[in-house]
Amino acid sequence: MSEMQDYESSLEDPNSRKFETFSYLPAMSQEQIRQQVEYIVQRGWNPAIEHTEPENAFDHYWYMWKLPMFGETDVDTVLAEAEACHKAHPNNHVRLVGYDNYAQSKGAEMVVFRGKPV
């Protein structure tokens, strides 16, 4: 059996916190984020953008940036909304969500911009 790696993560250190599967990997490039958006829209999932302060990422609901983009299939539009949210809230984490209508749950969720902890 291979050895499991323990990731240093604690509530006291906001920079060490992990949010979802991708947060254990190196930061995604813009092209990799684009591919994730393509994956979401190809499946017919509804993209949405959320944001929150780094210190509140675990014990509060995230704020919705506008409404979910029901039926949106233009990758550039989704990416532009994520960028607009980041510009409006530069210190907040911004995440992309893909809502799966059929399963009535999130099909995908990833932080695309990390805020700076206060």
Describe the structure.
The model has no long low-confidence stretch (mean pLDDT 87). Helix 1 (30-42) crosses helix 2 (75-88). This protein is 23% helix and 23% strand. It has a four-stranded antiparallel β-sheet with strand order 2-1-3-4, with helices on one face. A hairpin with a 4-residue loop joins strand 3 (93-100) and strand 4. By secondary structure, it is α+β, with helices and mostly antiparallel strands.
Helix content: 10-25%
What is the number of E strands?
4
Q: Structural class from helices and strands?
A: alpha+beta
Query: Over the alpha carbons, how many angstroms does the gyration radius reach?
Result: 15 Å
Q: What is the count of DSSP helices, taking H or I runs of 4+ residues?
A: 2
Q: In sequence order, what are the helices and strands, one letter per element?
A: HEEHEE
Largest sheet: 4 strands, antiparallel
Which percent band covers the strand fraction?
15-25%
- The low-confidence runs, each spanning 5 or more residues with pLDDT under 50, are none
What overall form do the CA principal axes indicate?
globular
Strand order of the largest sheet: 2-1-3-4
N/C terminus separation = 41 Å
Summed over residues and divided by their number, the pLDDT gives a mean of: 87
Secondary-structure map:
Elements: H1 30-42, E1 46-52, E2 63-65, H2 75-88, E3 93-100, E4 105-113
Antiparallel strand pairs: 1-2, 1-3, 3-4
